[in-house]
Design brief:
The chain has 16 helices and 17 strands. Strand 5 and strand 6 form a beta hairpin. The chain is of the alpha/beta class and 490 residues long.
Length: 490
């Protein structure tokens, strides 16, 4: 297909993984695709031999092999699919990962390794919650029953094993009965200790990008159990994105950097026209795929933006995840601490102001992420979105450091690098994607929060589609949107 100036079939606005997956699949099928990404926005940061990668959820730091295989098969990425020998090595690595906890939940009175195997998890419960072992066992047995029911329902609906997604007609929605329980996790856990309730809540919010005091029990089952026997914290998500990006360029996709879109209009030839701020260039396309936080792009969609407002009223960002980067000495890391952690300092306080932290430590001995004998520590803390404009990050940092000193004794004597500037520079940008969302109305979690198809030729592939599934939800949206466009224009 020939390029006609700035006219193409598909424009992908934003540089997230969902849009990149969609654009690559379309480009490989001979569609002219242009990826517009924000000039100057960096998804990682390197300095003084350290390499830091901000993240929104643990799903981005601990990828499931089934997710990688799904992407590899769809995009024909041989490096990720591996040879037969690579497959044997991958299986051996998977078997080893079952014996170690991919991440750890730290509570004021407990430190719990989250194992994929129930037998190993039971040892953790007995040690940290000795007075609730029977209750906890009953709770997980009930989740097991719901998991079997989910598998049965998905099988009948011919749903993808990769993702529990379904679409129902209006008639089916009105007259069909859902066999899954409507009960919320809050009611189910009301008789448990505050510590155990926080243990479950922290897992739910850290595995995806969704906060709720009334998490549906069936959704909690899917989040806690999905892929529990195949978590792989050794996989490099940044490498995955680079491989997909290279495939996108090899298949004929184009990339241009822009400052900001000024307006999107629908022309008389039923094509989209994008005008830019401070740039005379005009881009035209038949399809538009948006991969940027919904609340940051609706303003420049013109009349189309009014239709998006109803979805902004359904889901909104509650907390912003603010990254802090530290270079530390290996000797300060406590024995038994995992490379991925979720920690709460005081369960009686709100989650903001450094009270809850998500942490990612670079692997020991990985000199691509930190100098010898050092570790790169990426810390994600929560801030109320509405406080951002008023907040002073220097003051906010004090609360985060107080929490870190609690986790790492004598940390102040072993810090080589502290960087908060990346957050100051990048959070105001429209590409910044690290948010924790809340629902403002009822929703069917298997049908998503925000539709992937927002109008006839506008698609949305962001974290708000399926926020509770983290990276997996965004990848699923990208694959689904690309397949939908391919059916229209084979």
């Amino acid at each position: 297909m020939k390029w006609l100036g700035n006219e193409q079939e598909v424009i992908v606005l934003g540089s997230g993984l969902g849009g990149l997956v969609a654009g690559t699949l379309l480009s490989k099928n001979n569609h002219a695709v242009l990826l517009l990404r924000e000039r100057g926005y960096q998804s990682s940061y390197s300095t003084q031999g350290y390499h830091f990668i901000p993240f929104s959820s643990i799903s981005e730091r601990s990828l499931k092999p089934s997710l990688v295989r799904k992407i590899s098969q769809a995009l024909n990425l041989s490096l990720l699919m591996g040879t037969r020998e690579d497959g044997k090595q991958a299986k051996a690595a998977s078997d080893r990962s079952k014996q170690r906890a991919p991440f750890q939940v730290v509570l004021p009175k407990a430190r719990i390794d989250v194992f994929p195997q129930r037998s190993l998890s039971q040892k953790e419960w007995k040690r940290e919650f000795p007075e609730e072992v029977v209750q906890i066992e009953g709770f997980y047995n009930e989740l097991d029953q719901i998991q079997h029911l989910l598998q049965k329902v998905n099988g009948k609906k011919n749903a993808s094993a990769f993702f529990p997604f379904r679409q129902r007609s209006l008639i089916t929605r009105m007259f069909s009965l859902d066999p899954l329980p409507n009960e919320g996790v809050d009611k189910k856990l009301s008789l448990f200790s505050r510590e155990f309730r926080e243990f479950i809540q922290l897992q739910l919010i850290s595995r995806g990008n969704f906060f709720s005091d009334r998490f549906p029990l069936s959704l909690a089952t899917q989040v806690l159990f999905d892929g529990r026997n195949e978590l792989n914290s050794d996989f490099d998500s940044e490498k995955l994105e680079k491989e997909i990006l290279n495939q996108f360029l090899r298949s004929g996709g184009r990339i241009e950097e822009i400052d900001r879109v000024k307006e999107v209009n629908l022309g008389w030839r039923k094509e989209f026209t994008l005008t830019l701020e401070g740039n005379p260039a005009v881009f035209r396309s038949q399809f538009l795929i948006i991969n940027s936080p919904l609340h940051r792009i609706s303003s420049f969609l013109g009349k189309k933006g009014k239709g998006i407002l109803k979805w902004e009223k359904k889901i909104k960002p509650l907390y912003m995840l603010i990254p802090l980067f530290l270079g530390i000495d290996e000797r300060v890391i406590p024995v038994g601490m995992k490379d991925l952690l979720v920690s709460i300092l005081d369960p009686g306080k709100p989650y903001e102001d450094g009270n809850v932290l998500f942490l990612s430590l670079s692997a020991k001995g990985d000199e691509t992420r930190a100098p010898e004998g050092k570790r790169a520590l990426t810390v994600e803390s929560l801030m109320d979105v509405e406080k951002w404009e008023r907040a002073h990050l220097a003051d906010y940092q004090q609360g985060v450091m107080k929490h870190l000193y609690h986790l790492f004794p004598f940390l102040e004597n072993y810090i080589e690098l502290v960087d908060f500037q990346w957050a100051s520079d990048h959070i105001p940008r429209w590409s910044y994607s690290h948010f924790l969302y809340e629902s403002l109305s009822d929703f069917d979690w298997r049908e998503g929060m925000v539709p992937m198809r927002m109008s006839r030729k506008i698609y949305f592939v962001g974290k708000e589609n399926f926020p509770y599934f983290g990276l997996g939800g965004e990848v699923f949206s990208g694959l689904t949107v690309a397949q939908h466009i391919l059916k229209q224009r084979p």
